[in-house]
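SAMPLE LOG
Freezer: B-3
Tube label: C17
Construct: single chain, 372 aa
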Amino acid sequence: MKLKRVALFLLALTLFLPCLSSADEELGTVYNKGLPSLRDAYADYFDFGAAITGTEMNDISQLRGLSYQFSILTCGNEMKPEALLDVAESRKLAREDDTAVATRFNSCKYILKFAQGQGIKMHGHVLVWHSQTPEAFFHVGYDLKQPFVSREVMLARLENYIRQVMEYTHENFPGLIVSWDVVNEAVADNGPNELRESNWTKVVGQDFIERAFEYARKYAEEGTLLYYNDYSTPYEPKLTRICSLLDRLIAEGNIDGYGFQCHYSTGTPSMQQVGMAFARISAKGLRLRVSELDVKINANTEAWRNIQADTYENLFRIFLRYADKIEAVQVWGIVDSRSWLSTEYPLLFSGSHGYAKPAFYRLIQLAKAWKK
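STRUCTURE (predicted):
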């Protein structure tokens, strides 16, 4: 019944969106097509996008502004392994073949259908991550009471999982997903080891990242860009460790780019640190993307919103300097009230109504003034 309701919702949405008039739209909000368009303002430089969740798909008024403001979307949670891996069905298949994997796509297919219908690109997030991946994936028979599987079995499961995700998306939504985060957040922030310890390192070993990129390249639709994605890039020793990992991946020939998670505050990192990180990684010849952008502030006051606008503008001055290498800049969410950092008001549109904040207007002005 739930799927039927969602299907009816999407049908209503496709009928409803084209019929909206200016009288239906709220002045000064993300829903209003009288507002300047971020996707248009930055069209000569890179795609401007956002992350969206299944919850936001339930708000027709919010959806109607997406194709006007954004040219690319990312599922917030709906394409992570815990959403796509069907543990119960995999457990059944493992009785005959412990390398077998079952997947399901109910969580993401309606977002993909919406993007397809609205002519919006999609960025896939994420194939391999230590977090939001079912623990059972790593155990014999998908049974938590059993020990870890062998390296060979886990590599076969990894390949089967990536193959199924790639096959489903390019068979059902050809050309829609233009890029993927293949591996996410695998580098350690500090400590003695370059990679963070996880079930992937315990079961497969230090080369699980290389193997993930190998399988992703093997099954990805032709032309799909493959990214490694991580946070805290401007900080040492993490920046040097990321560069070391990228060098190994470049040597194998299966990586296309690096994704900067820019979950920042108004005071940190410094623009000098951000600029240095972009300089070091762009020098490797990879494509770049700002995959997860938001800027936290201490209070939802006019003064803090203006400080936030300064930070967004300074960041975009760096992004624009590397525009020839950047595929997309994507804010991690649409309105503050639904952000994962909602109490720190990090996005370009405020509250639940989505009123454009000073940072939004500052970015529009910067794009107009910038000289290519």
